[in-house]
Amino acid sequence: MFATKSGVFENDQAAGRIERLYVHDAVAENPDGTVPMRILVSLPLSVIFADANRLSRAISWAFALATLLLVLGAWYGTELFVLRSIRALLDAARRVRSGDLGARTRLRQVNDELSQVGRAFDEMAETLQQRDADLRKAVHELKEQAVTDPLTGLYNRRHLRDRPVRAEIMRAKRTNSPLAALMVDVDHFKRINDALGHEAGDMVLKELSALFKRCIRGKRYRLPGTGARSSCSFCPKPRLDGARSKAEDIRNAVKSMG
What we know:
This protein is mainly alpha-helical and about 260 residues long. It has helices at about 45-50, 50-95, 115-145, 155-160, 165-175, 190-195, 200-215, 240-255, and strands at about 5-10, 20-30, 35-45, 220, 230. It has a 3-stranded antiparallel β-sheet with strand order 1-2-3. Strands 4-5 form a two-stranded antiparallel sheet. α6 crosses α7 (about 200-215). Mean pLDDT is about 80; it is low at about 220-235.
């Protein structure tokens, strides 16, 4: 301190002592250069740096808060734009793989890469769904064509052989109920073809087949060309009598058409 006229120094940090900052300066100077009087001022370092410490803490808290907000924003953005889109893609892929061709990702909000992939996936799934519907329709039509007479729309012998007979026999056995089958023959049908042509014969077959369908289903129908109504609904009768009664009602309905 005595080596210079003025200066600043700190005391050594000893146990139990408060760190302080000292400032000294010469008040006067003798002709020989010596300093007869000095002023010494001392303040605790904590007081001197109080504002700086408060500012440093505020900056630290602000930095920590900004970092936290940045992390939360990044997480939310990742969750909203990336993870959610990935989950939608995976869920739609699992549903399509399990056979649900109506599954869609619905990723149409933005134009990022994942949304483009999602749109492409939805278009692919829509195409597959349409092709599946067309294929099912074609298969159904082929099945119908295989078991249906194209002129009358009645089931053919193949359908009768493949399903109804076995099913009806099993049901009859299970319920211990009678089962009857009717064989219908159109008398003198060749005369119609010879006299009026095959187109007229086809019309007769169509009208007869429509009548048979209505009779079997037990619905009322309007006779062609008339305003009269007839009914082919039958009251079941035991065994042979019931089959004869139904056959007679069908014969009378055909006779009424003429």
